[in-house]
Amino acid sequence: MQLDAGIALLQGPNGHGKSNLIEAIHMLSVARSTRASGDAELINTEALKRFPIHAQVLGLVDRAAGQVRLQLDISSTATGPSAQGSSSGGPNPRPTRAQKTLQVNGVKRRSNDFVGVLKAVQFSPEDVDLSTGPPQVRRRFLDMLISQLSHSYLADWQEYSRVLRQRNHLLRAIREGTSNRSELEFWDVRFAVSAGRIVAQRFQTLDKLGKFANEIHAQLSASEEPLTLTYRPSSELESSLDAREVANALLEDLRATVAREIAAGHSLIGPHRDDLSASIGGMDVVGFASRGQARTVVLAMKLAEARLISESIGDEPVILLDDVMSELDPGRQRHVLDFTSRYEQVIVTTAEPGLAEQLGIGTDRRVFVESGKLTSAT
C-alpha cells in the first residue's frame, strides 16, 4: 500500500503488525533494527528448525530527484543439533551469522552508501531508555543520527570497530604472554585516529541537537528550566577539540592506561565507552526525573533529531510515531502533532479507536492494520 504525504494513522489491535511496519520503514533508513542489537536477533529460531530463513524489506521512496527503490535482505541457515528440523523439544538451532545485503535501485551497496538515502526519525514508548537506560542506548541513538547526516561517519565507525576488535585481541594475547607490548603502538595509532573523528563528530552534533532540544522541551513542558545535553567521553576531552586534537589526546591516554587495559584484556577508553547525559535545570534526568519528565525529554530529543536532519541537509525525514500518543496527555499530543505536521510525511500508530477523532484526523488519513494487512478506511 502507498502511504501518501501528510499524516497517516495506522489503527488496529496490538500484535497485528503496526510496530513491525514502523520498524521495517526505519530499517530502510538506517539498515538495522532499533529493537535488536544485531541482525541475528531478528531471526526466528523456531522457523530455522524447518527451513533456511530469508527476509526482505522493500520500499519505494518518492524524492525530489525521482523515485528510489530501497531493498534490504537478511538470510541465514541453522547450525547445531536441532538444525535438521526435529520437533522433539531439543535445543533451538543456532543461526549462523546473518547475511545482510543492501540495494539501491537494484544495485548492491555498502551500508555507508545505503544509510540515509531515506531519512527517518522513529519514536516509540521504549525510547524512554534514551534518558534513563544504559549508555549503549544513547550511543546507538547518536550514531544512527550522525550516520544519516554523514556517509563518512558510518565508514569511520566501521573502521573503529575493526580496530577495536584487533586491539582487544592483542591486549588479551599480551596478557597471556603470546604477544609483545611493542605491537600495540601500531594499533594504538589507528585506534586514536578513527576514534578522534568519531568523538569530534559526536561533540559537534550533540551541541546542535542540544540547542534544538532545549527550545522544543521548553514548549512541550512549559518549563523555564533549561534542558541540557552533554557528551560524556571516557577520557578527559574538551568539546572544542577537532578530530586531530582528540586523536592526540586519546593516544596519550592509551599509553597511560596500557597496564590496566592489558590486565582487563580489553580497551577501557574510546567512543565505545562514552555516554551522553540529559539534565533539567542542572539536575541529571537519571537521578531525579519522573517517568513523565523523562518521556518529555526523549520526545524533545527525537523532535530535535528531525529538525537537525531537516536543517542540516535540507532533506525532510519521515516521522514515525509508534504508539506514542497513548502515553501523552492531550496537551502534549497536540504539541507533537503541531511539531510534526510541518514535515512532509508522518506515520502514527495506535490501538485506540477514538484517537483519530480526538486528534481530528479524517477517515482519508486512516489505515486499518489487522493480521499484517493494511486496509484503507475509505
Provide structural commentary.
The protein has 13 helices and 15 strands. It has 378 residues and is an alpha/beta fold. The strands form four sheets. The protein has a six-stranded mixed beta sheet with strand order 8-12-13-1-14-15, sandwiched between helices. Strands 2-3-6-7 form a four-stranded antiparallel beta sheet. Strand 12, helix 12 and strand 13 form a beta-alpha-beta unit. Helix 5 (135-149) packs across helix 6, helix 6 (151-175) crosses helix 7 (184-221) and helix 6 (151-175) packs across helix 9 (258-264). The longest helix has 38 residues, at 184-221.
Provide a compact summary of the structure:
By secondary structure, the protein is α/β, with parallel strands linked by helices.
DSSP strand content: 15-25%
N-C termini distance: 13 Å
SS content category: alpha/beta
- The share of residues in helices is 40-55%
What is the alpha-carbon Rg in Å?
A: 23 Å
Q: Which sequence of SSEs, written as H and E, runs from N to C? A: EHHEEEEEEHEHHHHEHHEEHHEHEHEE
- Describe the largest sheet: 6 strands, mixed
Q: Would you report the number of β strands?
A: 15
Unreliable residue stretches: 82-89
How would you write the strand order of the largest sheet? 8-12-13-1-14-15
Query: What general outline do the C-alpha atoms trace?
Result: globular
Q: What's the total helix number?
A: 13
**Mean pLDDT across all residues, rounded?**
87
